[in-house]
Amino acid sequence: MHVNIQPNCTDTPEFGTLSVNQALEMILKTVHPISGYQMLPIQECCGRVLFENIYSTGFVPPFTNSAMDGYAIHSADLPAPDQVSKLAIIGTAVAGQAFSGQVNRGEAVRIMTGAAIPDGTDTVIIQEHAEFDNQSITIDARHKPGQNIRLAGEDIKPGDCVHVSGRLCTPADIGIIASMGIAEVPVYRPLRVAVFSTGSEVCDLGQKPVDSADQSLIFDSNRYSLCAALKAYPVELMDMGIIPDDPDQLKAAFLDVSQTADLIITSGGVSVGEADYTKQVLSELGSVDFWTVAMKPGRPIAFGNINSAILFGLPGNPVAVMVTWCFLLKPAVEKMLGITDQLISPRFLATSLSNIRKRKGRTEFQRGILKPGENGQWTVQTTGKQGSGILTSMSLANAFIVLQHEEGNVEVGDEVLVQPFSGLF
Ligand code: AMP
Ligand code: MG
């Protein structure tokens, strides 16, 4: 007797035809920044993407001012070594109220941090370094000309490009824009993202009792985790619910949303199962490729477009959804949003505290718990069971253990590449 077996994802040569990097490269070649912007008050711009370069029209700081509380003097009055100078205090300058007179040699002005440097002075002596006595100060020779002064424009000058278009604004960026007196800036409009779950076994929250013994249904988790991940970005989420494995319903839903969405994300139905119509429908509706990516989890992926919307068909397994989000979808979302500098999520080596089985020929993203060890070295252990349906492996973890394409088994004490979740979620 002979059984004619089919290739399967556990056969090494069939792990995938594309490496993760190749898949990502093809994705990033295909997706482009959306066009369209809106002017927004800067209070609403943190986490938004600048649509244009921002140039300064003025000086920051706008005038030369004191960096300390003390006395403004002329540097020519600084004493020679081993000598002292006695200077008469002729007035006060506070932040928001400049000293308007002229300061002559032998004179000083009491000055507070942020106050404009009075005419005729160029140096500030901090108050702790001056001996105050009856409207005069005595200073010694420890001081340098020009000290404790913040020069007009030392941070920003007129014409400086302070932010480039494509910048995802941070709190400090917003502060800089405000410091130049700019109240609103152009940012990319939000990305319109439609999120579906597919599968007749998938039901939404509230659709069955939480304690139901029904053995044919599972709660949808993918749509919730994906939407949660997307909410970190300026997206207009179109939550499209769950479509059962029914070609007509799938067709209608995809076609309809492709009129308005920039990006459609589905999960489930892109592998080889009998009832998985998503694949069939997607190939009829648009120009969609079905890839086997040499990664675990996350091997089957659909990528292409329906009308002008980019489509990502992610695998159904919840961990595969999270991993493909991180390494294939998120970079695409960032590019579509107009972000030019990819967000940094560093990888580095850590000592493995676990024995890990790994087959060569695919990149594995195991879930790990990263901890500081001795001598500044990081350690990592797996979260335990690594099945692609075990979503607790993601929430217990704080880092991916990235086992590279050609890497084999890992033993306790080996160094492995890790990528913390910070910057990924
Ligand atoms: P599929 O890719 O459709 O073959 O699905 C793979 C596995 O993921 C199956 O066990 C599905 O039941 C499960 N699955 C599919 N969609 C979801 C979802 N939205 N939430 C949770 N699990 C899902
Ligand atoms: Mg399915």
Description:
There is one protein chain. The chain is α/β, with parallel strands linked by helices and 425 residues long. It contains seven helices and 26 strands. It has helices at residues 20-30, 171-179, 222-230, 247-257, 277-285, 318-336, 392-396, and strands at 37-41, 54-55, 65-66, 70-73, 85-93, 107-111, 123-126, 131-133, 136-139, 149-150, 161-163, 184-188, 191-198, 202-203, 218-219, 235-243, 263-267, 287-292, 295-296, 300-306, 309-314, 348-352, 363-372, 378-382, 399-403, 415-420. Strands 7-4-6-5-9-8 form a six-stranded mixed beta sheet, with no helix packed on it. A six-stranded mixed beta sheet has the order 16-13-17-21-20-18, with helices on both faces. The protein has a five-stranded mixed beta barrel with strand order 22-24-23-25-26. The mean pLDDT is 94. Bound molecules: adenosine monophosphate and magnesium ion. Residues 199, 268-269, 273, 276, 316 line the site of magnesium ion.
Explain briefly what this protein structure is:
The protein is of the alpha/beta class and 425 residues long. The protein contains seven helices and 26 strands. The chain is elongated.
Entry keywords:
single chain, 425 residues, alpha/beta, six-stranded mixed beta sheet, 26 strands, 17% helix, elongated, binds adenosine monophosphate, binds magnesium ion
Separate helix tally: 7
| C-alpha-based Rg, rounded | 31 Å
Counting DSSP E segments of at least 2 residues, the number of strands comes to 26
The shape, in one word, is elongated
The secondary structure category is alpha/beta
Average of pLDDT: 94
The biggest beta sheet, please?
A: 6 strands, mixed
Strand content: 25-35%
Task: State the share of residues found in helices, binned by percent.
Answer: 10-25%
Measured distance between first and last alpha carbons: 52 Å
- Arrangement of strands in the largest sheet: 7-4-6-5-9-8
Low-confidence parts lasting 5 or more residues at pLDDT below 50?
none
Q: What hetero molecules are in the model?
A: adenosine monophosphate, magnesium ion
